[in-house]
Hints:
Blueprint (H helix, E strand, L loop, with lengths): L1 H14 L3 H21 L1 H25 L6 H41 L4 H26 L4 H26 L3 E3 L3 E5 H21 L5 H29 L14 H24 L3
Antiparallel strand pairs: 1-2
Amino acid sequence: MDDLHSLNEAINKKAGRKLIPSIFVAIVILALVFGTVYLVPALFAGLLWIAVLLAIRELSHAYRAGGIDLPENILYLASTAIMLAAWYGRVTGLSVAMAVAIPNVLVYILFKTPKDFIRRSTSATFALFYIPFLAGFIVLLAHADNGPSRILTMVVLVSCNDTFAYLFGVLFGKHKLAPEVSPKKTWEGLIGSVIATTIGAALVFQYSLDKPFWVGACVGFATVFTSTAGDLIESAVKRDLSIKDMSTLLPGHGGILDRIDSVLFTGPAIWFALEFIKHFNL
């Protein structure tokens, strides 16, 4: 038992997370995702909306810690409008809602106070683009005819990327990928992600989406970089604001935004890939 405890502590120290709580939370999240998307897709969209609002709250509080004070109420309202537009208006509704939301949010911020307007308005625009707009593509995936299969594909790809980057990084990681942004990430972890995500994507495309395995392999290879980029962007935000985690809401994961950072960048990539495949009948 002492040896197992020592091994677990060593893994926790190297990965920067508590392993057991992290696994438990991940299982609960996966159960909620698949339990809703397969039974009631609208309920899945509702859960995603809640996650978006929580992520907006986390980012707003992180901004405040960095000296950027934004009115959360208008961000909640704009995020809700963007998510509803994605559900009812598909990609056109999502685009138009974003185009309408940003000017209105900027005007609201201006009339609240013109002080530090550039800093506050760009921060608000980033928040809306980064969270509800990108999350809108996950809504589009879920609201398609084969929505559950599309969400399954996204989850498999992101999970393969995150899990095997973690494992390869813990077991073999020696060369830092981006030490000034995310010191825990390694080139060895990225190689593990590429191998696992390419294989996982080939399988899920073949057996869940009924598409050629080589198409899935290509998409999987591409999403390694979108997932990694999403994680690095959030790490850069936290480093710039001098915080470790967005919150402590999810044990072993940090906050909601810490958990969905990779998903936010990968959802649009998968949506585009599937639309491209559909258009060209691949």
